[in-house]
User: What shape does this take?
Amino acid sequence: MVVEDGIRVGSGVMPAVGLGLWKLPEQTVASTVVDAVAAGYRHLDSAADYGNESAVGEGLRTVLQNTNVNRDDLWVTSKLWNTFHRPEHVRAACERSLRDLGLDCLDLYLIHFPIALKYVDFQERYPPEWLYDPEAASPRMEPDLVPIADTWGAMEGLVEAGLVKEIGVCNFNTGLLHDLIASARIKPALLQIESHPYLTQDRLIRLAHQYDMAVTAFSPLGSLSYLELGMAGAQECLLDDPVICSAAQRVQRSPAQVLLRWGLQRGTAVIPKSSQRARLQENIDVFNFDLSDSEMAAISALNRNRRFNDPGHFCEQAFGGFHPIYD
Assistant: This one.
């Protein structure tokens, strides 16, 4: 299967390989953005909660001022954090991301989680993260009962105001997608979910495509980002899986490139994360080889339904609240 380097998202075309900016240090992310664009990246996946959007903005300014790349060449995504789900807070949250990134308009703005938390004012703490009051005797997350339809209506207002081109959602399940589609005036253009060979999410991806939604897979390399957080074990490393290594040997590519190619051939965009120049180049060099049908099937058969990024686990463990969003 030949995969083009772009995926249609609403009325635009998003580069199929992007740079994920989660957990990239604020001190170095500006230079990483510059290095990534030099390596050929034109898709940056950001979020208010990553705590580094101002630094990402510095990198973008360097790129736009000092290279031949212009704003129209780039696809920049950001995300609405959980504490800003009430309609009266959505625009202010988007405008804060735009200001930090140094942009007039986002290519894509996503609801980060289907989890609404009590509002924390920008002046009090930004990004507000998960805990309502970190200084409390027993700090915990504080849910807020905000219907997704209310939040989505405000997201639609961002499109109508010209602040964002496309809107979508992250971490939604099939039931939430059905419900959102039924009431939306502007249909979600993209679904971003965790997906890798240990969590293939075939039915969810099929449903999104049925609704003409593009899909971006985060954590496409599996457990790597979660090892240092204690959310994955060393034995769960996809880069060491014999099936992946066998395919890598045949195509003379790295296991990471095989994983990214598998994601692309499934019809999803992928947003690997790295700050190393060699890795940045390796991760985008995935368009001139193909995995065979048998290799694709064997890799997909590795599915364990193993979710590393699960609020049903980490919210209770780290933030004092049991808040599952997946069955």
